[in-house]
Specification:
Length: 206
């Protein structure tokens, strides 16, 4: 092979490599927020173009000593990280507790529920008497505050009262608006639900 032929071959290999790179799977899942039919319920499309791109589900580099499967919630940055192998994490945008309702600490996922019933705590009903009609529980549905999925957080065998859950209020992501629970877009909580296991460690940081 002469020099000219060798150079041509090198260029062809480089072009093939670059073409292959262009076809690698995307690591930002902006296209995953379309309408979803799930367990008989119809979740509407989220207008994801109105949500800051940093809050779109994505795989990121993440340096931690926690083992894969651990969930780390950064309430100040409004991110939830699901720790993956090889220094990676799936990152989700979240909504967090408003002033006076923040919390931090370590808990475990004790239960997972699809399309859960929502029962407002007595303290919440006292603050918002209109919720009294749901004292016995609000049935599952697309308007239910817990959304499509809920992960129940316990500490020392006791229910903390806090949840990682979906929400129909996609515009609350990136904000401090909840009564302490960590909320995700419904399409994201469905994804997290499939990844997270009962017993998984959950760390909530301020």
């Amino acid at each position: 092979m002469n020099l000219r032929s060798g150079l041509l071959a090198t260029l062809l290999v480089a072009a093939a490599f670059l073409s292959g790179c262009a076809n690698l799977p995307k690591q930002v899942f902006t296209s995953e927020y379309g309408a979803v039919r799930d367990a008989g319920y119809s979740l509407p499309r989220i207008p994801i173009e109105k949500v800051a791109s940093k809050y779109h589900r994505q795989v990121v580099n993440y340096d931690t000593r926690e083992k894969p499967g651990t969930i780390i919630v950064d309430t100040s940055e409004k991110f939830l990280y699901f720790v993956m192998p090889d220094g990676k994490a799936m990152r989700y945008g979240i909504g967090v507790g408003r002033a006076g309702f923040e919390w931090t600490g370590t808990a475990r996922i004790a239960m997972k529920r699809e399309w859960p019933t929502w029962t407002p705590p007595a303290a919440m009903i006292r603050r918002e008497p209109k919720l009294k009609k749901w004292a016995g529980g609000m049935p599952p549905g697309t308007s239910n505050p817990l959304g499509a999925r809920a992960l129940y957080l316990y500490r020392g065998g006791s229910d903390t009262g806090y949840r990682l859950h979906g929400t129909p209020e996609w515009n609350s992501i990136g904000k401090a608006m909840s009564s302490g629970c960590i909320r995700l877009m419904n399409q994201d909580i469905i994804d997290l639900y499939e990844r997270a296991e009962v017993g998984a460690k959950v760390i909530v940081k301020g």
